[in-house]
Amino acid sequence: MNLLEELLKTLDKMVNDQFESVEFKNFLAVPLTLERGRFYVIQNALYTSNRRDCWGYVQGGSPLDVKRVIWEHESDELINDPRAGMDHYALTVKQGEVIGLKPEDFERAQVPAMVQACFHAWHHIAMHNHWLSAYTASHMLERRNNGKIVKGGGMSYRVGKKFENELGINLKRMISLDVHVVADTDHSENISEMFERYVKTEEDCDLVLKGAQESMAIDRAYRGAVGYYMAQIN
User: Fold this and answer.
1) Residues 84/186, Cβ–Cβ less than 8 Å
2) Cα 92 vs. chain centroid, distance in angstroms?
3) How many domains are there within the chain?
């Protein structure tokens, strides 16, 4: 097994291990009520906005060909995803209609304290690390959502099935979750191609692993925080 193959195998193990963590298990074990579902959908929109911040920071520090790949990725997110006919933030707001949310519910939403700390941490990685570490940190959140890699399905699929099984809302009606089951599979595979171009040495591998490890730690903290806040809602 060559250097790159070993690295990608390690990244795949890391995203699968996320779902065995106490934070992920606790988050997914919180029973959904309608109010908890509304909270989750709103928080997911705020998470989507944070992702746009971070990919923008990563793009600014990346080589030119990497900038192009990120630009193509972000065109789905910020302008129009052909799978949905709208950008991903608008898609999340549209999804909210299924559970009784209005656009103004998203506009006045607050970021809870522990979630805000996670958002700041992801910002820090994107802004202050070597571009390869920062790139990997954002990439890992989509790799973790890739059902071809994650046994049992990525996070969007698993949350979508919770809405289906616990609230009786078919996954296809939860349009943002449903689109991300496919979109993040495509995105993570396209973005992963950059590792083939830029990972040539052990030092490159170390930079990738640094970004991956830091982002996965924040991801666990984020899911733990969202699960905690959901559990406080009756």
Assistant:
1) no
2) 13
3) 1
Quote the Cα angle for 167-29-95, to 5°.
40
Query: Residue 43's domain is classified under what CATH number?
Result: 1.20.910.10
The conformation of residue 31, written as its DSSP 8-state character, comes to: P
pLDDT band at 228 (very low <50, low <70, confident <90, very high): very high
In sequence order, the 6+-apart residues with CB closer than 8 A to the CB of 138 are 51, 54, 55, 58, 122, 126, 215
Mean pLDDT of 195-213: 96
215 contacts 126 by C-beta, under 8 angstroms: no
Cα–Cα distances in angstroms (integers) from residue 18 to residues 11, 59, 133, 194, 213, in the given order: 11, 26, 19, 23, 11
Contact 24, 145 (CB under 8 A): no
Cβ atoms of residues 130 and 69 within 8 Å:
no
Give the range of the structural domain holding residue 55, as residue numbers without chain letter: 3-231
Write the CB contacts of 134 (distance below 8 Å, at least 6 apart in sequence).
54, 57, 58, 61, 125, 126, 127, 211
Cβ-based neighbour number of residue 103 at 10 Å: 12
CA distance 94 to 107: 13
